[in-house]
Amino acid sequence: MRAVVQRVDGASVVVDGADGPVTTGEIKGEGLCVLVGVTHEDTKEKAAQLARKLWSLRILKDERSCSDTGAGLLVISQFTLYGDARKGRRPTWNAAAPGPVAEPLVDEVVAQLRALGASVETGRFGAQMRVSLTNDGPFTVLVEI
To answer: Phi/psi class of residue 140: alpha, beta or left (left: φ > 0; alpha: ψ in -120 to 50)?
Structure first.
């Protein structure tokens, strides 16, 4: 699993609904916006490991973590994290797990975070999403499990 983790001062995700744009997830104030990519070899155990890492990652103000402060997390599935653009002009997505494999694993990351006590908001798997955030720092790290 691969996650791009951004320390934010507010973040939200909007998808198109039947009656127009719908906000599916939002955190206000300090927190983390986490884009999660899944590859073919990923497992529920790796999802749990990623959740523990995200919960305890000390990248908030004064080197604190979400577990220290109760800060929220916005978790969004993003298969493009496994895109490969080394050859040609068009990326390939061969390393990204297909939806039926990836969706339950992203859901498992969210479930494990909630089991740890985290306040978690989400996007909508497979939807065209518009993510808005204020990157605080800016501070962005890549986490590989």
So the answer is: beta
Per the prediction, the chain carries an average pLDDT of 95
Q: Is 79 a catalytic residue?
A: yes
**43, 80, 92, 134: which is the annotated catalytic residue?**
80
Which DSSP letter does residue 81 get?
G
- For the chain, the domain total comes to 1
Q: What average pLDDT does this structure show over 87-95?
A: 92
Q: Per the residue annotation, which of 24, 79, 112, 122 is the catalytic one?
A: 79
80 flagged as catalytic: yes
**Choosing from 6, 24, 39, 78, which is the catalytic residue?**
78
Does the annotation count 125 as an active-site position? Answer: no
* CATH of residue 120: 3.50.80.10
Q: Which pLDDT score, from 0 to 100, does residue 135 have?
A: 95
Note the pLDDT tens digit of each residue in 43-54: 999 999 999 999
Domain that holds residue 98: 2-144
